[in-house]
Design goal:
alpha+beta, seven-stranded antiparallel β-sheet, 4 helices, 7 strands
Length: about 180
């Protein structure tokens, strides 16, 4: 029997799952895809608009580009909120077998203020498979309420994002 240790999200201490107010984790393993197939659809926010209907009004930096990069800032509307974000982790391994993307984000004011960390991990697996993991950890009163909502809107929303991303990569959707 072969044992395999899967890479995990690298969490800044502030956002450690179980220590925050809400946490969502979604994962898929798909045959006949690679990290490189998926990566290009994840880092280009223009592609998001073709496969994830819960993200709109996306502006990266000064608006002259659509691709995320290390330390890029961007804003977008999701779940009814305008989120200001900064890319905290942007890594594609030299061999193309592992990719990491993560951003911090804030939205709301006063009692509505929320602080989030959203991370993606994509890795090639044996037998021409790819693993796509996305997780988000949230701090604030609104995330506290979300954590009590069944079904959890974050789990459902992120699953839709994950499925859309995988389908776009598999179908080589134009954007």
């Amino acid at each position: 029997m072969t044992t395999y240790s899967q890479p995990a999200i690298i969490w800044p201490e502030k956002y450690t799952p179980g220590e925050t107010d809400n946490y969502a984790s979604n994962e898929m393993i798909i045959k006949d895809l690679s990290v490189l197939d998926v990566w290009k659809y994840l880092i280009d926010t223009k592609a998001w608009l073709t496969y994830y209907n819960n993200a709109e009004n996306i502006v990266v930096g000064d608006g002259s580009q659509t691709k995320l990069s290390a330390n890029a800032t961007f804003v977008f509307d999701t779940f009814g909120f305008h989120v200001s974000s900064k890319v905290e982790e942007f890594e594609l391994s030299n061999d193309g077998n592992l990719a990491r993307l993560a951003w911090s984000g804030t939205f709301g004011e006063g009692d509505e203020f929320s602080d989030v960390y959203h991370a993606w991990l994509i890795e090639n697996l044996p037998n021409n498979r790819v693993r796509i993991l996305t997780e988000e950890s949230q701090i604030g009163k609104l995330p506290q309420q979300l954590a009590q909502t069944l079904p959890n809107p974050m789990i459902n929303g992120h699953q839709a994002w994950l499925v859309g991303l995988a389908n776009s990569a598999k179908n080589k959707t134009s954007y």
